Amino acid sequence: MEPVILGLVLGGLYALLAQSFVLTFITTKTLNFAVGEFVALGAFATIAVSSWSWLPSFGRVAVGFLAASVVGALAYRFIVLPFTTQGEHDTRWLLSTVALSFVMLNLITNVEGPSPQRSDTARISGSVDVLGVGVSKQQLLLAVLAVVISLILIVVSQRTSIGLVMRAVSQDPETTSLMGISPRLVGMGAYAVAMGLAGLAGVLYAATVGASPVMGAPLLVASIAVAVIGGLGSLWGPLLGGALYGVLSEVASFQYGAIWGETAGLLLVIAVLVWKPEGLLGRRMEVKL
Amino acid sequence: MSTIEKSPPTSAAAPEPQRPRSHVRSALRGDILFAVVAFGIAVLAILPGRDGAGTSISTMQLVASMAAMTVAAVGLNLLVGYTKLVSLGQGGFYAIGAYASAYLTLDVGLPPLLAILGALALCGAIGAVVAVSSMRLRGPQFAVITLVLAVLVERILNEGNAFGRLAGYPNYAEHDTTSMEPVSVFGITFRPPMIAGEVATVMVPIVVVTVLVLIIARNIAKSPWGSSLSAIGESEMLAAHLGVNVFRRKISVFVLASVLGGLGGVIVTQAFAHLQPETFDIYLTITIVLAVVFGGSGTILGPLVGAVAIVWLEQSDILAEIGSFQQENISDTWYLSTSGLVGVLFILTLFLMPRGIVGTAGQLLATVVRKSAADPDAASTEGSASTADHPAVTTTASTDQHARVERPPVAAGADTSESMLRISGLSKNFGGLRAVAEMDLAVDGGQIHAIIGPNGAGKSTLANLLTGVYQPTEGTVTFLGRDLTGQAPHHVSRAGVARTFQTPQLFHDATVRANVLAGFADTGRTPLWAAALKPPGRYRRDAEMRAEADRLLDLVGLGDVADLRASELPYGKQRYLEIARALASDPQLIVLDEPAAGLLATESVVLGDLLLSLREEGFALVVVEHHMDLVARIADQVTCMDQGRLLARGTPAEVLSDEAVVAAYLGKPHEEGTH
After folding, report:
1. Coil, helix or strand for B595?
2. Residue B496: which residues within 8 A CB-CB, separation 6 or more?
3. Mean pLDDT of A226-253
4. First to last CA, chain B
């Protein structure tokens, strides 16, 4: 039971990041492979303002969110958007975001140094008892947040005009732009929210493990795996994918050792892609000739 | 002169025996020149190490790193550059090749050469598994699955005890040494560049292998096998219609790329005799992608140029100097060092040189060449444009007699009592929508069967059912007595059915001639070994195909623009080009999906002449068309569909005056939309 609970909690962190992949994918059909560095950016931005005692800790967390969010919007405008102009098969954005991740990682390392820094903002100590398993409150917060944010996103996308615009842009950017909606602005908005979420995850994650430039890299692969398992086109996907991935990798590493934990999770991605390339909750698109 | 006879290529070449032979000779000359220059450069590269001077060690190591990166990048280029599948997993195969060849030698105890072969086979096998499991994926999902592989490999190397983890491989704890024994074959020991005074003999096989890989990759890229990769990159559906088994070919190319990635790793093992897991990280896999993109993806020399440039940049002091320059002049902390600068270089390449060094240089060269060539020709090109607008008119008149003799026996030989194409009871449901319902159709050689109907009538779906894009829900398709029901597009194409598309599907960056060349059955049928090794027969066949392609281009009136890029053709001519490509596969039946869409009235007339001349030659044509004047002029039989069903059938005059047909189009029985 213990690995299952821990897996679900761990899956929450991945789900939160996976949500940022889904968010950019459903609006712009792109993924930001630099998302790991936005995690670190958020964490360090919060640390940078941690000495501002006049700012309540909620405000400091917001700074982490906003920093990642502003850089995210700019990244979309200048690094992603120019490389999506050649139609569906254009995958240059994939390379440009990978390159962005190199640049950001290098810059953060040079500025902040490679060793982890302690972050006290939004730290909750102690643990709670979940079905007989002790779970740290910090991690539980991340998991709960992932669920809450996913639900908010789902409600927004289905019930509000913003959601309608998002879905319209994802289906047909050209027609949407004829309706007077700028797909570019929608894309920047989506990236702002998505990278903000990554920054937020970074702030909360740094409270447990400390902030370091490379903190996001291991999360990148796991969260992209979660997003793919659940389906890149579905806002429900990260929750399902996170739960499956988290539980499977925790159980496997509990049983067979740490190296098998991650391997099992990644093999799950391959299995899902083979069986259902669009993800467990994704919808298949018919190719029209 | 321009007939579409189905004669054997030798007799086609008969009137001009000089041309094919001179093509063979110039192709052979080009290949030999490439090999000689490549080997010459390779010799020059390892010349500094000939006496084993201590000062040459670092140079030799640099050359070895460049060679390893080149081999891996050449493999990746086949995927990224030609097939347009962005793989982030090449670093994984590189690592597998390096570690497996070392592990099989040291821990398993295989003879070194066998260990290397085993490592390559392992890379191929893993590549095959990944390929099979990712075949339905494109774009980001494919990148993700390959990235997952690279990460898995990195984790296993970093955390698997068998590989010494951070102590590297081999290491003292397990092998009592930190470097591998040099490989000995037939009494020759291939020493790595490590110890001063010892000649680094391993450099010879390293550069030889690198040059051979380059030659093989060049052969493949220029072969029909290579054009099938470009076809897949353009559109898998198009490739399938050119007779390519897309599934198998994608697996082959991925396996080939994986083996080459592994070979790069093998070179590293041989050159450095020791492996550290942290050198095989994600950064490596991205660097290989960068080498391809920076050098020029989809070009023959791009991976070489890119790999050499990137390795040199990383090993030289330039990037470090730029880093310290920033520190001194801008900020002590806000600066970029090597990996960040590589990232910037990557982004700048994508912005400024999307074709990479080689691609951009080639483009500039082509522009210069064309400018100097264009001036005297300008007038004649302009002049020929008007005559080229009426290509088929003249040819038809002059070739009628020859053509009729040559063509029909093939069709007649199959079964005279039955039609060439027979469709019966064909239906297709999309969910609840019945797009095609119980259609029957029979077409014979030398016949044009037009299919008309309002938008959404199911015409294109019928064409797609015919060529295997969709599986029919019910009914059968028989072609030349063979059952083609539900066969994949490449089977249909190989059976002798060619098609053109509603929007021309061309290789826009390739020349007009190359587009036609891709249409030959060779694109789907050439085996990989023949493409790679280029046996003598290949030269002859290439020359034949070239002559035939030029003949087909003359036929459709594009003879004088054969060297232009396809995207430079006006829209109407792109349609003729597509027809020429369809003819190249030597079909019996051609399915044309709205060939006149977007054509000017005059162009449409020329198209009609061309189609009529094809009919004269014995081809069966199924033409989905909206232009009623064209249909009325060329069709022997017209089928009008409405809501998936047969509405009317008969001669053009009958169908176009049918009240139901007119009603379906206009909703008013007294107005005719045909003139």
Report:
1. coil
2. B479, B480, B586, B587, B588, B589
3. 90
4. 35
DSSP string over B467-501: TTSS--SEEEEEETTEE-TT--HHHHHHHTEEEE-
For B152, the closest of A107, A224, A263 (CB atoms) is: A263
Partner A contacted by B144 (CB < 8 A):
yes
Question: Is the Cα dihedral B409, B413, B418, B423 positive or negative?
Answer: negative
- The answer to whether A94 faces chain B, any CB pair under 8 Å, is yes
Identify from A102, A104, A283 which residue to disrupt to test chain B contact, counting B C-beta atoms within 10 A and taking the largest count.
A102
Q: What is the pLDDT of residue B189?
A: 82
**Structural domain that includes position A48:** 2-122+131-216
Across chain B, what does the average pLDDT equal? 83
**Closest residue of chain B to A266, computed from CA coordinates:** B148
pLDDT for B423 equals 87
Does residue A263 sit within a domain? no
Q: Is residue A260 one of the residues assigned to a domain?
A: no
B550: number of Cβ within 10 Å: 17
- Chain B hits for A111, CB-CB cut-off 8 Å, are 333-334
> Are B1 and B555 contacting, i.e. CB atoms less than 8 angstroms apart?
no
The answer, yes or no, to whether residue A232 has pLDDT greater than 60, is yes
Q: By the 8 A CB rule, do B623 and B448 touch?
A: yes
Query: Which candidate from B134, B151, B336 shows the least CB-CB separation from A103?
Result: B336
Task: Convert the pLDDT of each residue in A255-280 to its tens digit.
Answer: 887 778 878 888 888 888 888 878 88
pLDDT (tens digit, 9 = 90+) per residue, A199-223?
999 998 888 888 888 888 888 888 9
Q: State the DSSP H helix or E strand holding residue B425, giving kind and residue range, or none if neither.
A: strand B421-430
DSSP labels, A7-40: HHHHHHHHHHHHHHHHHHHHHHS---TTHHHHHH
Q: How many domains are contained in chain A?
A: 1
CB distance from B186 to chain A under 8 Å?
no
ipTM over 0.90: no
Query: What's the pTM?
Result: 0.86
B456: closest CA of chain A, how far (Å): 13
Q: Give B102 or B188, the one with higher predicted confidence.
A: B102
Nearest Cα to Cα of residue A205 among A100, A121, A112? A121
Residue entry with tokens 């598994």: B129
Placement of tokens 């190359």 in the chain: B514
Q: Return the amino acid letter for A20.
A: S
Residue B374 has pLDDT above 70, yes or no: no
Cα B634 to Cα B621: distance, rounded to the nearest angstrom: 10
Task: Kindly state whether B160 is in contact with chain A, defined as any CB-CB distance less than 8 angstroms.
Answer: yes
Which residues in chain A have Cβ-Cβ distances shorter than 8 Å to B502?
Answer: 289
Residue B303: cis peptide before it, omega within 30 degrees of 0:
no
Residue A155 domain-assigned (yes or no): yes
Residue type, B90: Q
Exposure b/e, A12-49, CB count within 10 A at least 16 = b: bbbbbbbbbbbbbbbbbbbbbbbbbbbbbbbbbbbbeb
- Residue A89 predicted with pLDDT over 80: no
Calpha distance A98→A183 (Å, rounded)? 23
- Assigned domain for A84 exists: yes
- Which pair of structure tokens corresponds to residue A204? 């909360």
**3-class DSSP state for residue A50?**
coil
Q: B623 vs A133, B452, B485, CA distance in Å?
A: 70, 9, 20
Q: What percent of chain B has pLDDT over 90?
A: 27
Token pair 């008013």 in the structure block, residue: B668
Range from A171-175, B67-71, B220-224, B278-282 carrying the lowest mean pLDDT: A171-175
Q: Is A162 on the interface with B (CB under 8 A)?
A: no
Chain B, nearest residue to A229 by Cα = B141
Contacts of A74 in chain B (CB under 8 A): none
Q: Are B72 and B290 in contact (CB under 8 A)?
A: no
